[in-house]
């Protein structure tokens, strides 16, 4: 992705440039938000609860990943840790995009933290860190952030209220599994990620009966250990 | 499937308010605090693996376990369809449509 895309002129308003860049990838949010809305209802959340989850958590993976745990009555600490682990990729995004937020007020950084989503980081991250004018950086981020947020809330409601219209016997909770699988696909193109995911999947099955749904935590740690060990072993072999 | 709380059920609201902090603080880690801190390479690697580890752990029980026992499930076939269509087709609707259709078709073809 070039930092000065074709068609960009110095006079182009910040919001227009941001939306033009965001448009293709942000439309991919629509099936996701509808699927998340449907899934929340399928797990038994009320319309109000589902809308509140979209509003407060605003993170598809963290929402879809914690729903089975919440409904099963898992301890809040396990639910919270799962959401945080699912969101750990944002710590990297946060570190990478933070130069774009230098010299911004705390309120802007707080709103930026709420609005930082995958599509926004992937599309705007390189552009923002290359933009010298802090005010233009903020305007671009604001337009893109508001756009993604609005799309997510609106089509989330389509899913939440549309759930009524779909056949009752459809296994709609599977929509959540589909969304998580779609996210897994680009990751497992890398061998170390395959080792990580296969290990955590295997341990999750073996440790399924552990009390308090703690099998998820054990599985994640096992996956991380396996991925790390694989990388270390691979690096050592190449070095030798 | 769990029983709905009704349109105005708010039983889960406190959980969502707590989860807000989990997602806001991870996204804000470097925007809110330590802007000048740099992550060591090893930590970055470890953070990069976390989603793959979490996703693997979360989807596996749905694909391989029935009532706590390992079983061959139509969900597994549907999952393969989902992953293949997501890998080779850029249409963002395809995995959802094909995955659901596969699962519904298999469940109707082999009830129980």
Describe this protein's structure.
The complex is a heterodimer of chains A (240) and B (112). The mean pLDDT of chain A is 89. In chain A, 74% of the residues lie in helices and 0% in strands. Chain A has 2 domains: 14-173, no CATH class; 188-240, no CATH class. Chain A has 240 residues and is an all-alpha fold. Chain A starts with 13 loop residues before the first helix and ends with a helix. Chain B is mainly alpha-helical. Helices cover 67% and strands 4% of the residues of chain B. Chain B contains 4 helices and 2 strands; from the N terminus they run ααββαα. Chain B has a two-stranded antiparallel ribbon with strand order 1-2. The chains are: A mainly alpha (240), B mainly alpha (112). At the A-B interface, helix 2, helix 3, helix 4, helix 5 and helix 6 of A face helix 1, helix 2, helix 3 and helix 4 of B. Chain B: Pfam families: AzlD (PF05437). Chain B: Keywords: Membrane, Transmembrane, Transmembrane helix. Chain B: It comes from Hydrogenophilus thermoluteolus (Pseudomonas hydrogenothermophila). Chain B: The chain crosses the membrane at residues 12-34, 46-66, 93-110. Chain B: This is Branched-chain amino acid ABC transporter.
């Amino acid at each position: 992705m070039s930092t000065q895309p074709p068609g960009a002129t110095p006079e182009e308003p910040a919001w227009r440039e941001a939306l033009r860049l965001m448009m293709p990838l942000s439309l991919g949010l629509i099936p996701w938000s509808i699927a998340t809305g449907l899934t929340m209802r399928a797990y038994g959340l009320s319309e109000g609860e589902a809308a509140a989850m979209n509003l407060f958590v605003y993170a598809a993976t963290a929402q879809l990943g914690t729903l089975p745990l919440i409904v099963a009555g898992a301890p809040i600490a396990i639910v919270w840790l799962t959401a945080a682990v699912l969101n750990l990729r944002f710590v990297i995004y946060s570190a990478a995009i933070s130069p774009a937020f230098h010299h911004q007020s705390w309120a802007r950084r707080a709103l930026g933290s709420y609005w930082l989503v995958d599509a926004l980081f992937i599309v705007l991250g390189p552009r923002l860190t290359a933009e010298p004018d802090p005010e233009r950086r903020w305007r671009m981020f604001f337009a893109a952030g508001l756009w993604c947020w609005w799309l997510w809330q609106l089509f989330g409601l389509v899913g939440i209220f549309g759930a009524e219209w779909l056949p009752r016997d459809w296994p709609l909770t599977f929509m959540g599994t589909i969304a998580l699988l779609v996210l897994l696909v680009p990751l497992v193109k890398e061998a170390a990620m395959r080792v990580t995911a296969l290990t955590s999947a295997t341990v999750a099955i073996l440790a399924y009966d552990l009390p308090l749904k703690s099998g998820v935590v054990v599985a994640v740690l096992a996956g991380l250990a396996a991925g790390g060990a694989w990388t270390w072993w691979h690096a050592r072999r190449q070095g030798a | 499937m769990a029983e709905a709380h009704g349109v105005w059920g708010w039983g889960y609201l406190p959980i969502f308010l707590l989860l807000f902090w989990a997602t806001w603080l991870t996204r804000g880690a470097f925007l809110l605090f330590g802007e000048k801190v740099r992550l060591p390479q090893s930590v970055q690697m470890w953070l990069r693996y976390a989603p793959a580890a979490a996703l693997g752990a979360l989807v596996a029980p749905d694909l391989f376990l029935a009532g706590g026992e390992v079983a061959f499930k139509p969900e597994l076939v549907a999952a393969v369809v989902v992953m293949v269509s997501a890998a080779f087709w850029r249409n963002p609707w395809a995995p959802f449509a094909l995955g659901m259709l596969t699962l519904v078709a298999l469940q109707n073809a082999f009830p129980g």
